[in-house]
Amino acid sequence: MGAATPSHTSTGQAVEAIERSAIRKISVRLVPFVALMFFVNYLDRTAVSFAEPNGMGDDLALTAAQFGFASGVFFIGYIVLEVPSNMALHRFGARRWLARIMVTWGVVALLFTWVQNSEQLYVLRFLLGVAEAGFFPGAILYLSQWVPTRHRTKILALFYLAQPLTTVIGAPLAGQLINQHGLFGLEGWRVMFLGVSLPAILLGIVAWFYLIDRPSQARWLTQEEKDWLVRELAAEDAGKTGAVTESHGREALRAAFTSGRVWTLSIIYFGFIYGLYALAFFLPTIIEGFEEQFDTSFSVMDKALITAVPYLPAAVALFFWSRHATRHGTRAWHVAGPAIAGGVSIPVALYMNAPSTTIAVITVTACSIFAALPVFWSLPSRFLTGAAAAAGIALINTAGNVAGFAAGYVTGWLKDFSGGYHLPLFLVGGFMLMSAALMLWLAARPEAAPGRPETELVEAHR
């Protein structure tokens, strides 16, 4: 073939410039705001982990199993309504639905300020799950609808940075609020609940006016950028051979619920999220146990800062691991490798002989989990489209919420049963190794060979 003519070259350069500009604007104008919503979402969801060792556990007379159940019961309401919520988002639009979710969860989170006993704590945690149902898969679906596949890992990584940074920033923030004991006549942990709930309500109101449902409606994009995005996304959906495609209502649910790929990804995600929430809910309590185990003492702020330590390196690992996957193409080991590292490291942390080495090993686990998650979430949208994407992504995240409930309740129950965290954390490691094995199996399946539809899911490692 001959060399490209100057007109073809200039046209190609113009299209590349439009692409770069469009993706940059989305990265600056849209992703940070949705990430801020996720930051507040995750902070409200895990605030109970900061409250328990700083007064709430004693004031409400909670055992480890009761606290574990309170942590996990959140996910029951979330699980029941997750798929319907994501279908409603697809029908009514992300702007209205995500704003509604934020305001209602903020109101429920505010009520934790006045909880009086374990039964009220259970009810409020359940209602918080009902109010939050659909937020995370809705945000993933929303961002996936704004960028082509080749940019999706990068965009989701920028969004996902909010989760580890929630603990990096949120743990010291929670510590500062807890130190305001007596403000408004409230115990410190109640002040903390008050302080972290109000931003959700305010942000939900702002989201109603700030978010835009689709690229064609974005005034901050030029017409050329809108046309390019609409054209690229439409061509991508049309080219998904063997995809679980656009459908409506029961057809969308049937398409997602009968997809073997969706169920396999659901189990893989279960393993990661089990590890994530076992750490999120019990790391502050484990750190409090250092005082007796290693004959030392920490202030409230000391414990908050130690809790934050694993998550800053995790944010760095997330960014660079996702960038590597974006530049070189997603491989099975981008998900399986971190799962193996996390599965091995979390039990090893139990045998360290100092707080510093224990936290160092737990940091490896946190880095592993967060490095894999945004890469993982770039996979479903490679073969799911339209309403089926809403249902399938919600189904996968539902498996994660089952893990969230199990991680809280089972970890607390096993700790009470065995008298320590060895047994529950070995279980965490086992689930993460299961995720690694399934990811490698999925990539190595004969039907995933080049030229078959399954290759759109993930390229096999080589």
UniProtKB/TrEMBL annotation:
This is MFS transporter. Keywords: Membrane, Transmembrane, Transmembrane helix, Transport. Residues 30-447 form the Major facilitator superfamily (MFS) profile domain. The keyword Transmembrane applies. It is found in: Cell membrane. Coiled coil: none annotated. InterPro entries: MFS (IPR011701), MFS_dom (IPR020846), MFS_trans_sf (IPR036259). Pfam families: MFS_1. The chain crosses the membrane at residues 26-43, 63-85, 97-116, 122-143, 155-178, 190-211, 262-284, 304-321, 333-352, 358-379, 386-409, 421-443. It comes from the Bacteria. Its main location: membrane. It is a multi-pass membrane protein. The keyword Cell inner membrane does not apply.
